[in-house]
Amino acid sequence: MAIETLDAQKTTVTVFRTFFESVKANHCDALADTIAEDCEWVFIPDMKTYKGIKAVVELCEHGKLASDKTPEIQIDVATPEWGVFKYINRGAITKEATTGWQFPADLGKLIGEKYAVSICFVYQINEEGKIFHINEYHDMAQLNRIVETDE
Q: Looking at the chain, which terminus has fewer C-beta neighbours within 10 angstroms, N or C?
């Protein structure tokens, strides 16, 4: 298998890129068209899992991808059976973004702080060309540096 160059990646739109852009633009119908009914999304390392198209669409709707985040896409390659999508998520921490995360007691110290976190998705594609399994990896060391405070 040949390795794609960055120029080739720009002209080939993968199913995950369509998925990602649909989430970013809040186009839930287009998002649902890229996901298999039995899709499973697993966050690594805590193994939190979302099963089924409804759970995955809800996760994306609440994920705030369309907020003030500025993704810097680094890798977007796929075969007919699998793909890898990696980007750097840049933005500022909002009060809404802290929901569900383990943050310091004084959230006020983090609100407005800028961040840059690398995120990578390794996914599988079914015979219909839809995503049926996603593993999502975060740069946990970078996340930990962001939330450290001088308490």
A: N
